[in-house]
Amino acid sequence: MANTASVGKTPLTTRGVQPVGRRSWARSYRRVVIPWLFVLPIMLINVLVVIGPSLSAFYYSLTQWSGVGPARFIGLENFRNILFHDMAYRRAFLNNLLWLSFFLTVPFIVSLFAAGMLARIRRGSMFFRTALFIPYVLPAVITASIWRNLLSPTLGIGPLLASWGIPGLDRAYLGQPETALLAIAFVDNWHFWGFLMVLFLAAMQNIPPELYEAARIDGATRWQEFRHVTLPGIRPTIVFMLLMVAIWSFLVFDYVWILTQGGPAGASDVLGTLVYKQAFNRFEAGYASAIGLTMSFFAGLIIAIFLYLRRRGWEI
Amino acid sequence: MGFLRRLFKPGREMSLAPNYILLILLVAFALGPLLVVLFNSVKAPASIGRNPLGFPTEFVWENYPRAWQIGNFATTTRNSLILVVGSVAGVLSLGGMAAYSIARLNLPGGGALMLYFLVGSSLPVQLFLVPLFFLWRQLGLVNNLFGLIIIYIAVNSPFAIFLLRSYLVGLPPDFEDAARVDGANEWQVFTRVILPLSWPAFLTVGLVVSLSVWNEFLLATVFLTEQRLFTVVTSYYNFTSRFSRDWALTSAAAVMMIVPILVVFLSLQRRFIAGLTQGGVKG
Questions:
Q1: pLDDT at position B117
Q2: In chain B, which residues have pLDDT < 50?
Q3: How would CATH label the architecture of B71-242?
Q4: Do A13 and B165 touch (CB under 8 A)?
Q5: Does A131 reach chain B within 8 Å, measured CB to CB?
Q6: Which structural domains are found in chain A, ordered by start?
Q7: In the predicted structure, residue A19 carries a pLDDT above the cut 70
Q8: Which residues does chain B have within 8 Å of residue A139's beta carbon, measured at their own beta carbons?
Q9: Where are the domains of chain B?
Q10: How high does pLDDT run on average in chain B?
Q11: 3-class SS at A190?
């Protein structure tokens, strides 16, 4: 979030003339105490909700704890379980990787393609931008229920195609272990790709038009223009979104939970749904904290890899 | 048809025809499913089996009052509105105060504070969810709208502070200084000078926070488990699992949820899109 904001000292504002000879506590009151009073309420709330519980998650991950009563310290037992024994964890982690590879490719290809199309037209471009963005503002429960119907094996799109003479697509995409997770990813992507497209479109509109004119004079085809002017021009945006999407891929919860609750029989479980089940269905709050911690670890690992590659001189 | 003729006119415009065709296909992909929901919302439940995706042959408007009643929309809308209003008020006032202090009062340690919020905002909900839930239960804040509002304020405020700060940094200092010379204290400067000057940024943040709170699922599911406190979203989730066979009913409920979001989004879309893309929030 808010990565576009820069972190740093803000410029000094001009101040009214300070009366000479003020006692120093009055000055530090104005310069230090009052500014901190303005940030204090939100800081307290942030510590109470985010930072405090995040730190205590480290402790609870080392315990066996049902959520009520005292937590029993068991050292690294939870993590040993995750690493060596828990097959459900392993499957969920592999599902997160599958999710990652889906979301690093499909939405990017579709939205780059669409943004490239849209950047060239004038008439109606506002309409297309708005229309393609609409799915992004809908709540996940709505998107999920719409597509649960459309993907239904008896009444959805598949049977409709079958009645038109295109057989074989009337399958229970969400109900079969082999296809459940991909079907969920497809639905999430229906909701998500318009957002990416609008970001890419905004970046494309910042490319200097002279570059396109130069390419045209050189006789570049449209594809060459896209490949050698557009893509390099918006590369910072693409790379940044690849990073964000990779992080989000380890945190996914909503669509999986709403559409299948990780089913059938755990086939579409991801780490996010495992945390939920362990904490609130099985009351293994200590183990759930440990899983949550590993999710944050993977998200942090993505950032570390990104920074490492950049330091190695990759232009990302 | 003038539009079509111009589209296929030879020359420069001609070359854009494939763009329009592909974009129209993508729009059909994006909006087609919404059209199907609209169609199904007015079909008789029995006729959906014969005609699950097409245009309705009869119009059964009673689906709407039925869905409103069974879906308990009066209560859930009230709950969602309380959450939205409370969270937006909290984020704008407390986040606005912090942004003002960092941007205009030259807060000592402001850079470190921004870094703190940056780290805090990138911590995944799943990391602190479990300890937070059991802490909130001890404090009696589970199944309590106010308890959830506090969480929403905490989760949404970093984004608000970043966006408001970058707006406030760009304001000219003249008005503030004039007010200070007239003897206003910092609180009066904030409420009487800064707020009226920077309402566009506050509106953008307010819209983004409203949408994210209105649509939020995970925290609302975990922290509000009693039916009387369900939000529009969590109630719809339960509703669809109870009435999964009755597509007419669930479609009518879906339309009632989609329409208000679309009306607000379409009337303020530039501000929405700017805010959402700056926030980089995945919904």
A1: 86
A2: 1, 9-13, 281-283
A3: Orthogonal Bundle (1.10)
A4: no
A5: yes
A6: 87-139+184-311 (1.10.3720.10)
A7: no
A8: 214-215, 217, 232-233, 236, 257, 261
A9: 2-62, 71-242
A10: 87
A11: helix
